[in-house]
Design a protein that fits this description.
Layout lengths: L21 E5 L5 E3 L14 E5 L10 H11 L14 H4 L18 E3 L2 H7 L2 E6 L9 H17 L6 E6 L3 H12 L4 E8 L5 H9 L3 E5 L3 H14 L3 E2 L5 H7 L1 H9 L7 E6 L4 H15 L8 E7 L4 H6 L30 H15 L4 E6 L1 H12 L7 H15 L8 E6 L7 H8 L39 H19 L6
Helix pairs in contact: 4-5, 4-8, 5-6, 8-10, 9-10, 10-12, 13-14
């Protein structure tokens, strides 16, 4: 679509202007560093960083309703760099030229309303945002598109070369990192560290298929993360975990899309997200803050962070009502079907603490809440959601279990509309479904298979064993017709089918 078709007030803004106004800011000592450096923690105090915009106030020069119009009209563009998360270029990466942006189809994932039966079962209206429909089948592609685009930007400026990108993962991060790095091969090579036997076979296949070097490490994700952190401080590698502040920027797009999907009206809206390394909830809150401060939305939605009782350090931190008495204590995780959230020492915890404080202050009251759920409820609600037309993973089940718990605790009411994060595609975690259906989930998970939720295939055989076709043994016409009738009659009986009148 050519610029001639756009309204006059939109034309000057429809193509974003590149500006060099971003910088790293330490959440500990407030030190500032140039964006052209590869930094993940503050060199001075070792705290995590956030990327800030020196000219954020300039975004307010454009009225909120005009911003809404700009983003709505950008939907019509056919420029690949602006099709994904960089539709919101000014809020995510204004220093990155369009030619440096890596777009693989991420972002703008569908928002699917729950059917009436499921709404009534839960107690309020809700939607799933299907981030499992991103390229590598998880929400991690948002942050990875941002992080890898920032690397491409530095490569294009000839500031870095021969990049080795590394990450620790519970599965989804490794898939996203390997995919985006592979797209820029040979400019970037990737290596991923996974906890041995704590990643589903489907997730393990993804980085292998993308050509990454995969290292399985004994222990849990937190142990892998420490090794990756050590590598990033001792060697010239690019860290692609959410400790990388560019990852947070990209994941903010989730908030921007929700605002646009709901016509910029965040009144009585609740956004529910699972918490693992705490990067996603940090990004979601920060994104809404940016849009609120730019007058694009006029209120902040309620945020509910959900954790399993088997990995709940953030929930435990906020159990203390007195902010002055809160002390973060990492936890030893237990086996969880929500494997992507099975993290006992989230690296983005300092971001959570600061952003929650800012979010509640801007809202004028508590607007961020945390709930804990059981492993049983995660699995049961995931299966229930998918039996009602969704394709959510176990983390999406965790969100739905969290919404139910929040409703029971009067954190949300039937007057609100919730948007739940289905962080990955159900297929990634289908092994847990298979184990549940076969009643073989290990005892450590503390999950009992409910017979009402079990669904297994039925093998239907003909009465005559000589009437069983195969690829190597085809039946004659008469025998085949007898086979078809025999099997059809048996299926009709199982389904209680009636002959037509």
């Amino acid at each position: 679509m050519t610029l001639d078709y756009f309204p006059e007030d939109v034309k000057p803004h429809i193509l974003p202007t590149v500006r060099e106004d971003l910088y790293y800011k330490c959440l500990g000592c407030s030190a500032e560093y140039p964006i052209e450096k590869l930094l993940y923690v503050c060199p001075g105090c070792n705290q995590v960083l956030l990327i800030q915009d020196r000219n954020a106030l300039s975004l307010k020069k454009i009225p909120g309703p005009l911003w809404q119009k700009i983003f709505d009209f950008r939907k019509l563009l056919k420029i690949p760099a602006l099709k994904g998360i960089y539709r919101y270029h000014e809020f995510i990466g204004p220093c990155i030229p369009l030619e440096s942006i890596v777009y693989l189809g991420e972002g703008h994932t569908p928002v699917i309303e729950a059917n009436q039966h499921l709404k009534e079962r839960v107690g309020l209206s809700f939607f799933y945002k299907n981030d499992g429909q991103n390229p590598s089948a998880s929400f991690k592609d948002r942050g990875m598109a941002s992080a890898v685009s920032s690397i491409k930007y530095l490569i294009d400026k000839r500031l870095i070369s021969n990049v080795i990108a590394v990450c620790a993962s519970t599965g989804d991060t490794s898939a996203a990192a390997a995919l985006y790095a592979a797209y820029l091969d040979p400019l970037i090579k990737s290596a991923v560290l996974l906890p041995h036997k704590k990643v589903t076979s489907q997730q393990l296949s993804q980085p292998l298929g993308s050509g990454a070097q995969v290292f399985e490490i004994p222990g849990v994700f937190d142990d892998c993360m420490k090794i990756v952190e050590h590598l990033s401080t001792q060697y010239s590698v690019v860290l692609l975990n959410s400790k990388n502040a560019w990852r947070i920027l990209g994941q903010e797009s989730y908030s921007y899309e929700i605002a646009q999907d709901f016509e910029w009206d965040m009144k009585n809206k609740t956004v529910v997200v699972p918490i693992g390394n705490a990067g996603n909830i940090s990004a979601v809150m920060n994104g809404f803050i940016k849009f609120y401060e730019a007058n694009i939305i006029d209120c902040l939605p309620k945020i509910i962070g959900v954790q399993s009782e088997h990995a709940d350090p953030v929930f435990q931190y906020y159990l203390e009502p007195d902010e002055a008495k809160r002390k973060f204590v990492p936890v030893d995780t237990k086996p969880s079907v929500a494997q992507a959230a099975m993290i006992g020492n989230p690296v983005s915890m300092p971001r959570v603490v600061q952003i929650v404080k800012t979010y509640n202050a801007l809202a004028g009251h508590q607007q961020v809440f945390f709930v804990q759920v059981t492993e049983q409820s995660i699995m049961d609600w995931q299966l229930r959601a998918n039996r009602n037309g969704h394709i959510t993973c176990t983390q999406g089940g965790e969100c739905l279990a969290g919404l139910v718990a929040a409703f029971q605790k009067d954190i949300v009411s039937s007057e609100e509309t919730a948007i739940l994060d289905a962080t990955a595609h159900a297929i990634k975690f289908s092994e847990f479904q298979d184990l549940y259906f076969r009643s073989e989930i290990p005892e450590d998970y503390k999950i009992t298979s409910n017979a009402d939720n079990i669904n297994l295939p039925s093998l239907i055989l003909p009465d005559n064993p000589n009437l069983i076709p195969s690829q190597t043994k085809r039946l004659g016409e008469k025998d085949f017709q007898e086979f078809v009738k025999d099997i059809s009659d048996k299926i009709a009986e199982r389904l209680d089918l009636k002959e037509p009148l």
